[in-house]
Every structure is written in C-alpha cells, then in structure tokens.
Design brief:
The protein is mostly beta strands. It has 2 domains: about 90 residues, Immunoglobulins (Immunoglobulin-like), CATH 2.60.40.10; about 80 residues, Immunoglobulin-like. Helices cover about 10% and strands about 50% of the residues. Strand 17 and strand 18 form a beta hairpin. The longest helix has 17 residues.
Length: about 210
C-alpha cells in the first residue's frame, strides 16, 4: 500500500512539472496592463518634430516591460530616443502632406493600446494658451532653476517650435535668460512671464535670504 502511494505521489509531481510549475529563480514575464501616450493631441507643420512620452503600467514593481512595445503611424516617422526611469521617449516627425494622422502604441497582442492624434497644417495654428512649468518655485539667494512652457491651440492640441519671450515682474529679485533659466539675486517675490504670439503664462518665484 505504501509503495502504491509513493508511486501516485511521484506521478503527481511529474505532472506538475510537465504543465509548467513555476520554478524558483525563473525569469518573470511582464504583462502590460496599460499604456499612456503624452501628449494625446498635437498640431504640427509639415516635417516638424515633436517629442512624446510613453508610460507603461504592469502592476509589477521593478519590472521593465518597455521592450514589449510596438508603435506605428498612419503618416510621418518615429524615432526611439531611449527609456529613462521606465518612460519611453520618442520623436515624431510629421509628413509633408497636411491632414489628420494617428500615432499608435501597442504590444504584439494588439492590446492594451493608446494613441495620439496629429494634425498637420500648411500654416501655423495660432497659440491660444501658454502654461509655465513649474507654476511656482522657492529659492534662496544664489539658487537657480529653469522654467519651461507648454503651448496649446484653441482645441487643446500641443504646439511646438514657437519662440518664447521671458521676462520678470521684478528684475531686482532674480534674473532670467532667454532659455527660461532663473537665478535668485535678492530676497523677495517676482513673477516669471512667458510670452508667445501675444499670449502669456506666468509662474511665481519666492526668494529667501
């Protein structure tokens, strides 16, 4: 009877191994649960380039699944700029023909997926809003920081390649360069002003002694 039980247990173990029982130390196969492309809508001129990011969600900490991504577009071209902190950075270049295009990011299985809408126009679309990032900064005298802008048209599509003019409401508190680079020079508060095509965005800088 004992011998028969041992044979049955041995057969059961063999069956478990045959169907792929997880072996300690075996590699973890990541599964992508979500993909997020940003921005989701952009407006470009022909042959204009725009940088986008792709976030991947796996539900597993410490697992890099970015190698499983696939991307395509109905017009234009895409260059992979690499992965930083689990976020994929790409550059999309629009085609020569004006129109509406789609950038698609997915996996070999076709799911999950996310897209970005691309509008290509023959003439520049007017700037509607200017947003300065970060919206505020606290510095001490001698500190430096850099501000950036996000430009959008009236539909909420992101715009690229427009010249920005930077200024300060109080230049005795800080200095600002044409790149948005700020240096604190005295205690006080000043407003950073970014202007593009008559539209402005602002941020507040507070400087402590």
């Amino acid at each position: 009877m004992n011998r028969l039980a041992q044979i049955k247990r041995g057969a059961a173990v063999a069956g478990m191994l045959a169907v792929g029982c997880k072996i300690p130390g075996s590699p973890v196969i990541p599964r992508i649960e979500g993909i997020q492309v940003a921005p989701t809508s952009i407006s470009l001129l022909p042959f204009q380039a725009a940088e986008l990011t792709i976030h991947v969600f796996t539900g597993q900490s410490g697992v890099d699944a970015t190698a499983l991504l696939q991307w395509s577009t109905t017009g234009g071209s895409i260059i992979n700029n690499g992965t930083i902190g689990g976020v994929v950075h790409i550059t999309y270049t629009s085609p020569s023909q004006p129109g509406n295009y789609l950038l698609i990011v997915t996996t070999a299985l076709g799911t999950p997926a996310d897209t970005a809408n691309v509008t290509v126009t023959a003439t520049p679309v007017p700037v509607h809003t200017v947003t300065v990032t970060p919206g505020s900064a606290s510095l001490v005298v001698g500190d430096t920081t850099r501000f950036s802008t996000t430009l959008m048209d009236s539909t909420g599509s992101m715009l690229y390649g427009r010249p920005i003019t930077w200024s300060l409401s109080d230049s005795t508190v800080a200095t600002i360069a044409i790149t948005g680079f700020v240096q604190a020079i005295a205690a006080g508060t000043t407003t950073v002003i970014a202007t593009c095509e008559g539209r402005t965005g602002t941020a507040v800088v507070t400087v402590a002694p």
